[in-house]
Amino acid sequence: MPLLRTITDIFGPSIWFNAIVGLTHAASAPPDGPNGTPSSYDMFVTQRSHVVQQAIRQAAGDMRLMNPVSLVENHSACRIDTSGQRVLPNGLVWKPHLLLLSFASKVLAEANALLKLQDSPPEKHYTARTRGPPLPYLLSSLLQSRPQLKLPEEQFSDEDSLDDGLDEPSDSGDETDPDDLPPFKPLTKAQIRNLSKAQKKAYLDEIEYREKLFMKKQLKDEKKQRKIMKKMAESLKDLPSDYSENAEEEIGGAASVPVPMPDMSLPASFDSETPTHRYRFLDSSNQWLVRPVLETHGWDHDVGYEGLNVERLFVLKSKLPLSFSGQVTKDKRDANVQMEIASSAKYGEGKATSLGFDMQTVGKDFAYTLRSETKFCNFRRNKATAGLSFTLLGDALSAGVKVEDKLIANKQFEVVIAGGAMTGHDDVAYGGSLEARLRDKNYPLGRSLSTLGLSVMDWHGDLAVGCNLQSQIPIGRYTNLVARGNLNNRGAGQISIRLNNSEQLQIALIGLIPLLKKIVGYSQQLEFGQ
């Protein structure tokens, strides 16, 4: 790809309209296929031709290119026909074929010159053609749900304040306080093994019951604390400015002590020690949050820092939150810049409007996006959102609109439906999505969760429909079964099943089955001399 891009940059994309791809060593035997059986000659030629042609399309930025391919072989061992011409394994005499392709390309180039079918004027023969904006990508970004930006004192409130009553577990009728329960002494593993089956079941049921009560109490205490902090923040607004500033300093004084951030999860390495000390940093009282960006798929023995991430939350006139976030990543070849500025304003009960500006690198160009969304609650358990987006990529301007509706049936089931359109360069893309989520009846204490997603995209008359389903089912106390599946209208899909267990670690030995199967199959091949 670097070589093809260099050719494109120096000679211009039009060089590929006069190019013929030559595949050398054409009389060589094709390699074995993925399953070990020899692949056919024609299939191998088709695959190699497709790879090179696709690389040229990407380098030239034109998906319409279809460069002719010629097979070449000059080895002395190549088969020769009666006229002395070298013949390939598929029976093709390659020299007359190459001359015919060259002659045909020359004739087509002269015909285009006579008919004036050039894509650009003669004085700009080597300039790249203007490419249209990626409308499906821009529309997918527009349809994504974004959380509303809040003031610091509003961070303590629940995300969905309209359904405070939905946050309690369904079996909240059991108001037993964990402190009122009789004393309970945990047993060791050796003592548990000495219990009978009925005693062990009763012991584990008691532990599970006490854990649920303790988690319920924690959730209630956290909710009370959020309400208290919210009332304190509202009461500070009515006090004089100097007193409120002192009170805010007292409230936030404990957070002014720098604390170490959790260690990053580093990739597996062959080093004798894990250099986690290189990536430790403090979360200080500074309002600017600066964090490194770690490349998890980098080279071994490498530092691993790929860039820098900066975030800051401002408050304008004590009413408007304004957030700034930026990220810069750099390697030996490319540099990527991403920046986002967002703000939101509330007016009325359950109504808010947000405004955002994004800038990011797309290839060698910068994409500037201005977006705005308005959210309002038209019913107690229904939220509607309408949004606009404008994106400038190079010299192409795209505009989009979206409508989203969120229905909360109860604390277990909710549905989000979104639809929109994106237009630019006399082109339009339409899309929509649906997401349904079913939680456990004891949410947030339960572990079961099921999600159904549907997406539709129509662009250039090509309809793309996708469906994905994910379900997490608890099996016993320590086991979770996670199943995922997706399918599109082109017949492609995937199914994966994962089993998590925190007690029976011997289940991991199942992973040795494909390894042993491969070893046995390899030994059998050696037996038969394959």
From TrEMBL:
Residue stretches of biased makeup (Acidic residues): 155-180
InterPro entries documented for this protein: P-loop_NTPase (IPR027417), TOC159_MAD (IPR024283), Toc86_159 (IPR005690)
GO cellular component terms attached to this protein's record: chloroplast outer membrane
Biological process (GO), any one: protein targeting to chloroplast
Location of the region described as Disordered in the Swiss-Prot/TrEMBL record: 153-186
A single MF term (Gene Ontology): GTP binding
Stored NCBIfam families: 3a0901s04IAP86
Source organism (scientific name): Vicia faba (Broad bean)
Residues of the Translocase of chloroplast 159/132 membrane anchor domain: 257-520
Name of the protein in question: Translocase of chloroplast 159/132 membrane anchor domain-containing protein
